[in-house]
Amino acid sequence: MTDETPDDPQDAIDSESERRREELDDRIFEHSAGDDQEGIPFVGAGPGNPRLLTVAGKELLEEADLVVHAGSLVNSELLDEYCGHAELVNSVGKDLEELIPLMRDAYEDGENVVRLHSGDPAIYGAALEQMDALEHEGIPTYFVPGVTSAFAASATLRTQLTLNEVSNHVAFTRPQGKTLTPEEDHISDFIEMGDVTTCIYLGTHAVRDTMDRLLEDDHDPETPVAVIYHASWPDEDVIVGSIGDIADKVEEAGYRASALVVIGDAVTGAGYERSFLYGDWANRGSSENSAETEASDD
Ligand SMILES: C[S@@+](CC[C@H](N)C(=O)[O-])C[C@H]1O[C@@H](n2cnc3c(N)ncnc32)[C@H](O)[C@@H]1O
Fold it and tell me: In angstroms, what is the span from residue 198 Cα to ligand 1's centroid?
């Protein structure tokens, strides 16, 4: 174990960012997602149901000596089931100054360390800053993806986030608040586009504010909205409504956190047209062209 305190995490982040601007990391070309790699893996735990953890994530947890996990959004059943002998540390309430030496020292002592984020670490995960701080101290890190909660929500809703003639785009977003200024909140812009499924993370407490803003911006109050609390957990709850009435329903249910808000016509899965993928169009032209078409549409 080293006695060294880490560099100021912000200095480490700035320095790693600068390095990244200058040259791409060789590991980008040497490894694929899902490969075993040297270092501390930043693993996506998935949305909650332990069965929605990836095989790679499960294997890493089974080998782990120390698992630093994201607290209440990581299902304790998953920790019980897969982290057999590991020491478990909840990262909630701990800052980088505490987390980085904890992971660094364990790794330098030869322990298998896993950093476990909810869903996928690349979505509102604040993973890169921890990775940069560790890399800056010579500890290699890498991502192991997970199922983000929007994908669990769409599976629960038995719909697609993209749907031919209904939704051509998906926005993963969050509402204005401590992190985003009102100018940086683009939820109204996404709804205005008409063919976007808008998935709002970190917005359970702000459903009424968000819907009020959409109504002020003259969006159709009948636009479908679903709020999926704890998608894939045993206490999962699905509240379905519209821009006009969802806030009352969510308040009545009493949810202030841990739900995903999905806005757009894809919520109902109604009104779509068959895709080109399995129609006559896909089989038109030479067999070579249709193979390319299928590959690009798949
Ligand atoms: C800090 S973000 C982390 C998101 C996570 N990295 C992911 O990919 O799902 C936390 C927010 O994700 C959403 N969330 C996470 N797990 C969820 C679940 N099982 N069901 C519904 N929403 C969830 C909620 O909006 C919550 O406020």
Answer: 14
- Nearest Cα to Cα of residue 119 among 160, 72, 84, 83: 72
Q: What is the DSSP string of 70-134?
A: -GGGS-HHHHHHH-TT-EEEE-TT--HHHHHHHHHHHHHTT--EEEEESB-TTSS--HHHHHHHH
Among 10-19, 240-249, 278-287, whose mean pLDDT is lowest?
Answer: 278-287
Q: Is the model's pLDDT at 281 over the cut of 80? A: no
Tokens at 239, concatenated: 């509240």
Q: What is d(CA 161, CA 197) in angstroms, rounded to the nearest whole number?
A: 6
DSSP state of 235: T
Whether residue 173 contacts residue 187, with contact meaning beta carbons closer than 8 Å, is answered with: yes
Which atom of ligand 1 is found nearest the CA of 260? Answer: 22
Among 149, 230, 235, 237, which is best to mutate for testing ligand 1, by the most ligand atoms less than 8 A from CB? 149
Q: What is the pTM of this model?
A: 0.92
Amino acid at 196: V
Is pLDDT at 286 greater than 80 in this prediction?
no
Backbone angles phi, psi at 267, to 5 degrees: -55, -40
Pick the closest to residue 207 from 187, 230, 178 (CA basis). Answer: 187
Q: What pLDDT score does 294 carry? A: 45
Please report, for residues 75, 236, 258, the alpha-carbon distance to residue 119 in angstroms, rounded to integers and kept in the order given. Answer: 11, 15, 12
Residue 292 and residue 274: Cα distance in Å, rounded?
A: 19
